## 1
Amino acid sequence: MENIIYTLQDFMVHTKNITYLIMGGILIFMPLFWIFLTDREKD
Amino acid sequence: MGAQMTQPANRKLTPFNVITGMIIVAGIIFTVLRFTKGIGAVTNLDNNTPWGIWIGFDLLCGVALAAGGYTTSAACYIFGLKQYHSAVRPAILTAFLGYALVVFALHYDVGRPWRLPYPIFISQGTSSLLFEVGLCVFLYLTVLFIEFTPAAFEWLGFKKIRSVVVKLTLLLTIFGVVLSTLHQSSLGALFMIAPSKLHPLWYSGYLPVYFFISSMFAGMSMVIFEGTLAHRWLHDKMDETHLKEASGVALGFAKAASFIMMGYLAIKLIGISIDDNWQYLVTGWGAWFLFELLGFVAAPAILFAMGAREKNLTMVRWAAGWTVLGIILNRLNISIIAFNYHLPSADRYFPSLMEIGTSVFIVTIGVVVYRFVTTRMPILHEHPDYKEH
């Protein structure tokens, strides 16, 4: 029952929590993808 | 003598000419019907769906796929990546024709060509997104026309006026980027007026950002795709520089498109998360959304990345065609397929054969004009008198 969202504040906290975690993942993934794209250029 | 007389006639009856001729004749008939009998006589549009494929395909896809003009000229003249110089003129020509045909196609939808100057010069609706789009398209079409003119002036031998226009290149490029940023995003913003009509998976406060970011890789993919077709069909019109630089352009744009596509996927994910739309992903519409996102963005992005890494041009060219299809699917999803998703199937819109025929007619005009220009003007080769530019 504690998962029920009653207020806009609850909703924003819930969605922003998940979004910030996703953004953290993106910040790690994008540089790694850039390395994947460019690492053969040095050869 | 008889054989000599028949030779030119045979050369005119090529499969390309016969097919395009038939499409153009059919298109002229549809045009006469549209402008004499009204929009209801040729389309399946109704009060639920006033915008059909003439907007969803001709306008939204046309503008997105013409983005190669601003991406290529920005890469070459603003970022100084001169190795892409040979791709600028074909990209500018495609963008100019794309935007010109968008305006041409809009006449079929609006139906009153003599009122075209009204929104700009007579009755400005300054609080409307459509006014902003109209103004930007009007200005950007003018910019693209001026950017295209040096090729025409070289062809016609107008050296003085050509040298004046060439000096404006950087200024025109900056205008082009600014105007494209504005109207590419505004086309997405148009759909923010209908939150109850567009499915929540496609509706987002970030729609303008999605449209702008996707236009970048749409334009790059179109440059690669069009370069592939030019290589196949207009090989004899390309000079050594263009042939030598073509693979570098394809590989460089593949790398850029791949990275931008991954960024696009990331912001789409953020959009789902911020609106808390996760529950829709397990529905039928969710499957269709994932099909678009994974099948037509993630998959070609990975193919682009592998092609750029392995320097595999075939892979890159397939990925470019795939991405172009993905952009068309995305624009059709937003404007038609996921629009009015709540209506019963009997009330849903499906384009009539004459609507589809008119769109094919308009694309065919673009192909014919592109072929006419590239076979005559220095687009895929440098004019011998102007080698220094």
## 2
Amino acid sequence: MIAMLNAPHVIGSYVVTFGAIALYTWRMLARARQSARNVPPEELPWT
Amino acid sequence: MDPTASTPSTTATVRRPTSTRFTRGLGVAVIVGAAWVALFGLVLSPNDALQKTGVRILYIHVPSAWLAYLAFIVTGISSAGYLWKRTRSLVWDRVAGASAEVGVLFMGITLVTGSLWGSITWGTYWTWDSRLTTTAFLFVTYIGYLAVRGLGGTLHQRARRSAILALFAVLEVPLVHFSVKWWRPLHQNESVAEGELEDMMLFTLFSGIVTFTLLYVWLVIHRQRTLALDDSVAEHGLDAALAERRQEALQ
């Protein structure tokens, strides 16, 4: 288990990593939803 | 063409416009993998004899760095794909842009986690050693690349200028990777190649690399589709503006 001395650094690095990825993903998907409202369905050939 | 006059997208496609069955399956695998890495990285893997708990940062720091390298190399290859006349397509450009953006994200994570790790092992968050300096330079270069992508012009003008820049920028990747061999900095050498890790540590690190690679694929697929939607909106907006001007001229 993690010793108390370095816990802020170790846990902080995991929080920063997964937090940054989650934030980026959320913003990207929100942007996609916003753009999708302004294009016809044929512009989404992958769906 | 007026986008508001088009057939409206269905609720499902508007809610998840960049999603497919494949990406949903991949997303579930990434979430499971991330939980796995956190469990093994923070709880189940042993402490290192020398670095103690600091070694736990390795399981996210190294996969992030690997992903950033991979992302920038994919950006370079996709840019070459766009510039080569036989394969010229805006899809290459979008993959290049998506990959660069994801690469910048992971390079930023690499710098922050490396800084936290450095604070434990070296007693300082930052030092101007060759690995850190070249990594920061690579990070700034690709921020510049993303800024160049945001400049005005047509889609093909954007694609051409950013592809040329990407072909130069990718040359920095080997510089960063081999900086630990060429200049013998404070940053450690490759622990994996030198066999310094125990089996459980290697397993956790391998889990991190696999999970982050799957995450990279998921992010790039979604981001390049988002870019395709943005390009489509821009084109439709231009078409609508031109139609409006023509209408004004006729009146």
